Amino acid sequence: MTDTTRAPVEAHNSDDLFAEHDQSTLDADRPIRQGDVLELLHRKDDFPLDSEKTLGFVVTANCDLSYGKNWNLITYVPAVPVEVYVKQFVIPKELTSQRSQAERAVHKTFGTSSTTDQTDRAFEMMRLGYNPEEIAVLLPPNGKARDELATGIRVLLTLEKSMKELAACSHSQPFCSCLLAHCRRMDKARPSKKPAVDMLRTNVHDRLKRFPGDALYVHRPSPHHPTGYVALLRLVSSIHEASVSIKPMNETASTEARRVARLSTLFCHRIVQQMAQVFTDIGLPEDYETARDTHLLKISEQWEY
Fold first, then answer.
1. Which residues contact 224 (CB under 8 A, 6 or more apart)?
2. Measuring CA to CA, which of 37, 72, 115, 251 is 20 to 30 A from 191?
3. What is the dihedral of CA 128, 134, 139, 141, to 10 degrees?
């Protein structure tokens, strides 16, 4: 009789499971290859929030690297910690969306009749510094529309103030403090049963469940960078091959990046595949091609023999 008893399944740490998929074995003696993970040392101006944690995923084709077709340049896509991605990309997009909703709510308070002049005047008064109650007198005195307009204006003023403050933040702690201050102002501007901080968390979580096509989440890109990272596939950059150290002992004062890990083949191929989808070739109109051929022909005719 066959023993169908199964051995107990050994529990795995979720990080270990991710690491099995994300990382591949790094051979320090091999040259740079597609899928190598670079720690960027002096190329962080594009990511002011915690920029010291920025990585680069090499996307140059291996055949180009082998035959020197890359002009000694290593092409990579930057990757930032998911916390930085949220602060620098997700939250600003969420606040922009909230501002658009607030603007539509202000328009709605004036009704469906032709009220372009009224709404334009309301926004102009807001820019000139009138308080929400003064702007609300643009509406008839009866009904709740005045209160709704005043609330909409308060929300818009709060969002614009917060977006300016957050854009000026360069480190995590000031950013978080500004964000909490924004939520407190929103609670005063727009009374709600659910606190603004909880609504913001819910909306950010929903956005993180729907990553855009030009971003790819990698849970653990290297043993030295265990937190989740987001590869920004649209921000393709390059670095001179001589500026990249593949071994710690090779680092010099001119080193701009060091290789710290290697992505698994699955993730390496996925990054390149998703990049191709982002930059899919779009056909150009025929008149462009005609103009191009005419221009190039004139250039050749101007050559002196």
1. 39, 260, 261
2. 115
3. -170
**Alpha-carbon span 153 to 99, nearest angstrom:** 10
d(CA 146, CA 137): 7
Q: Which residue has the tokens 């909230």?
A: 98
Report which residue type is found at 60: T
300 vs 42, 291, 292, 297, 305, CA distance in Å? 43, 15, 13, 5, 11
> Which amino acid, one-letter code, is at 39?
E
Token pair, residue 77, equals: 């896509």
Identify which of 170, 167, 197 has the alpha carbon closest to the alpha carbon of residue 181. Answer: 197
**Distance in angstroms (rounded) separating the CA atoms of residues 87 and 169:** 10
Non-local (6+) Cβ contacts of 170 within 8 A are: 48, 49
- Tell me which amino acid residue 145 is: A
Confidence category of residue 248, pLDDT binned at 50, 70, 90: confident
Cα separations in angstroms, 184 against 150, 166, 196: 18, 15, 7
For 245, the 3-state DSSP assignment is: strand
Q: How far apart are CA 145 and CA 142, in angstroms?
A: 8
Question: Pick from 60, 63, 67, 70: which is nearest to 34 by CA?
Answer: 60
Give the per-residue pLDDT at 114.
Answer: 52
Are the C-beta atoms of residues 86 and 249 closer than 8 Å to each other?
Answer: no
Q: Where are the beta strands (DSSP E) in 82-175?
A: none
pLDDT band at 295 (very low <50, low <70, confident <90, very high): confident
Return all residues near 182 (Cβ < 8 A) that are at least 6 apart: 158, 161, 162, 165, 166, 196
Between helix 145-167 and helix 172-189 the angle, nearest 10°, is 170
Token representation of residue 149: 């307009």
Residue 119: what pLDDT? 87
